[in-house]
Amino acid sequence: MNLLAECSKAKRIGISGHIRPDGDCVGSCLALYQYLQKALPAASVEVFLENPPEVFADICGFGLIRQPEKKEQFDVFFALDCNAERLGSAEECFCGAIKKINIDHHITNKGDGDVNLVRPEVGSCSEVLFELMEKEYMDGEIAKALYIGMIHDTGVFQYSNTRPQTMRIAAELIEYGFDFPAIVQETFYQKSYLQTQIMGRVLMESVRFLDNRCIVGCVDRKTMEFYDITSKDMDGIVNQLRNIKGIDCAIFMYETAMQEFKVSLRTSDLVDATRVVSRFGGGGHMRAAGCTMQGTFHDCVNNLSGLIEEQLKGN
Ligand code: AMP
Ligand code: MN
Ligand code: MN
Question: Of 2, 217, 230, 280, which is the most buried if we count CB atoms within 10 A?
């Protein structure tokens, strides 16, 4: 795909990513925004995301992110790091655009655009974008946005989705001279005191099952209200559960409505997380996936447990 050729005649370009945007989502949207605005100065480029986390406020263009009004019309609209269904309020703009472009790395995305590039072998959407960008337009601010996307989806180059090429790209990016240790610390590792306390509480109350090979942690509505926290404050909890010795499948869930839970899975190579969540309409990657489930906490855990057990027994 040639990004600039695809957008050559466009006057109005929109960019969006998934609901509950993470580092890769915000990083890729803002990197593409800066790149297109620089390479195609005559076009107007706009970015739409729902409640992007404030830790990403230093990325150039963050202040311009907004939510779409209904029925805005675009010549080209990009869906990044997701399929159309997960765009949230920007889905209508994407579907109504003259040209829809879908760039992603989720194995469960079949491609919802007129032009699609889905590369499940690549660790982040930001990494996919880097390979589409012409070097003459690259600069320190674009590099920083892409780097943030890459570190968030690879767990700072730790997860198995880190390829040798990922490291080569990261090396090229840090040549631009941004303060990468501060970025890693402030956007990835640093938590507020409250966030750390919530994590501590979830870890304390977590329960193991299936011969101690699975673990589940949960936060209910009442607790979220009591501490006045949102989903962003619980980032990283599932990874901490996954770090426990002997665990092949870590589950973190929080209540989004009465008897409705957002579920996150992190697995070892013995469990394909996409196979589990696809039964509940979710998606993601082999080692990290998510879905929304209906029912009580116990219903959800029972349903997940059955599917995980099948895979653990099979392996
Ligand atoms: P999380 O639920 O945030 O732990 O997500 C883990 C990975 O799965 C991320 O790459 C998400 O973008 C992806 N993911 C989570 N929920 C869904 C879903 N319903 N459909 C497709 N991908 C998802
Ligand atoms: Mn994402
Ligand atoms: Mn991603």
Answer: 217
End position of a domain, from candidates 137, 169, 189 = 189
The ligand placed nearest to the CA atom of residue 123 is 3
Residues 208 and 100 reside in one and the same domain: no
Q: Does 21 contact ligand 1 (Cβ within 6 A)?
A: no
Q: Which domain holds residue 199?
A: 193-314
Residue pair 39/101 in contact (Cβ under 8 Å)? The answer is: no
Strand arrangement, sheet containing 214-219: 207-209, 214-219, 249-257, 260-267, 288-294, 283-284
Judge if pTM exceeds 0.70: yes
Q: Examine the domain organization and report whether 7 and 116 are in the same domain.
A: yes
Identify whether residues 151 and 217 lie together within a single domain: no
Report which protein residue has its CA nearest ligand 1's atom 13.
284
Same domain, yes or no: 255 and 287 = yes
User: Domain check: are 185 and 238 in the same one?
Assistant: no
Same domain, 72 and 164: yes
Question: Is the CB of 283 within 6 Å of ligand 1?
Answer: yes
pLDDT along the chain (315 residues), means of 10: 97 97 98 98 98 96 94 96 97 97 96 98 98 98 98 96 98 98 97 96 98 98 96 95 97 97 98 98 96 98 98 88
Identify whether the C-beta of residue 79 lies closer than 8 Å to the C-beta of residue 112: yes
**Which numbered ligand comes closest to the C-alpha of 17?**
2
Q: Which of 50, 81, 108 to mutate to test the pocket of ligand 1 (most atoms within 8 A of CB)?
A: 108
